[in-house]
Design goal:
Length: 394
């Protein structure tokens, strides 16, 4: 009887052990997920076989047979769907990258302006924020595309800026550079200068922390970045030759062109996201204790230096996490490009390629994987930066 009682207590202690239950539930969850995944895969494969649809990624080697309005790499209609995928990916990254930079700059300016003691500046920033963050981004894209870009004059009546930049309803035409013999020395001098500026900035920060004496890092950096590459140009020659767009017939030839779809999408996403970033910056600045500002002023720091050296560095610890979400939203909102025909991943790959090949599962899986990879990359980079600036308690 004693033996049975001990065995019963042993079994009871096993099932009531939190660690055992945790492992058991995790194993059951994994089995359930695997079983569901296998069921979906088998069901999909069966339905594809019944309809005579072949699966796999061999279609990526087939010729696309259609043109693309914008491509950052060489492309012809004879190229494969795999190359179309690369072009769509690069176009998506281009919009996302430019949009993140512009939205961050504009958002920080508006966030600081929202707290300005100047009544007019504060109200203008408030009107901007409350207006653009409450209008759906797709409508803003339509506004910039149909009401602004397509309303521009024709190429023959282009808006001319200095004889080198031309804006019309077919896009913005820019001079394009071509490398010369002086490019390699210029690039080497620029890289060395940038490394030197980074090392100098670190030294200046350590010097300030040790002695309290500021070093003019910004002015010195600007001087070095201008003087050393400029001296290299004088010695080795101009690193570039510029091809200026020229009006030939009914359109411009030569140079670079930003198509109306790219301009409209970039402006709309940047302006829309900047309104949210401005509120994040405002809340981050207000989260810093007012005693920090008073201490900085008691030390004789000007309002500009107080904001740059005291308030902003501390507010970044509050700003970065929600800022990451806005970067992710901007990257995902770039898929709205399909509304105006900009050749991004969704428009090109999940649109044209899917319609031509019928490989719905493969195309959608690739597109989803691309956006997942972009989002995870942004999150990893921002989380790394957030950990780097985090306060470390001693």
């Amino acid at each position: 009887m004693q033996t049975n009682a001990n065995a019963s207590r042993t079994r009871g202690s096993v099932w009531t052990d939190p660690k055992v239950r945790a492992w058991l539930f995790q194993i059951l969850a994994v089995i359930a997920v695997v079983a569901l995944g296998w069921y979906l895969f088998d069901n999909t494969q069966t339905n594809l076989d019944k309809r005579g649809i072949t699966s796999g990624f061999g279609f990526l080697n087939n010729s696309a047979g259609f043109g693309i309005a914008q491509h950052l790499i060489e492309y012809t209609e004879r190229d494969s769907y795999g190359r179309v995928f690369v072009i769509g990916l690069l176009n998506t990254l281009l919009v996302s990258g430019i949009g993140i930079v512009l939205a961050t700059i504009l958002g920080f300016i508006l966030g600081v302006a929202r707290l300005s003691p100047n009544w007019l500046v504060q109200k203008l920033a408030t009107i901007y924020i409350e207006t653009f963050r409450n209008i759906p981004p797709l409508l803003q894209i339509f506004f910039w595309y149909f009401a602004v870009m397509l309303a521009m004059p024709s190429p023959r009546q282009s808006l001319d800026v200095g004889g080198t930049f031309f804006l019309n309803n077919r896009g913005l035409y820019l001079p394009s550079p071509s490398a010369t013999d002086g490019f390699v020395p210029f690039l080497a001098a620029l890289v060395i200068t940038i490394i030197g500026v980074i090392l100098m900035a670190r030294w200046g920060r350590k010097r300030f922390e040790a002695t309290g004496q500021p070093f003019p890092t910004f002015i010195t950096s600007v001087v070095l970045l201008v003087a050393i590459p400029g001296l290299t140009i004088l010695l080795a020659g101009n690193p570039f030759t510029w091809e200026i767009p020229e009006l030939k017939g009914f359109n411009f030839r030569g140079g670079w062109v930003m198509i109306p779809e790219l301009i409209s999408l970039t402006l709309a996403l940047s302006i829309y996201t900047a309104a949210f970033i401005a509120e994040i910056v405002r809340s981050g600045i207000q989260a810093v204790s007012h005693g920090q500002t008073e201490a900085a002023r008691s030390l004789g720091l000007t309002p500009g230096k107080t904001l740059r050296l005291v308030v902003i560095p501390q507010s970044l610890r509050v700003i970065i996490p929600p800022l990451t979400s806005q970067y992710l939203n901007l990257a995902k909102n770039s898929s709205l490009a399909a509304g105006i025909g900009y050749p991004d991943m969704v428009s090109l790959f999940a649109g044209t390629v899917l319609n031509q090949t019928g490989q719905a599962i493969e195309v959608i899986a690739i597109t989803m994987s691309v956006y997942l990879a972009i989002s995870l990359s942004i999150s990893l980079l921002m989380n790394w930066y957030n950990k780097r600036i985090a306060l470390i308690e001693r």
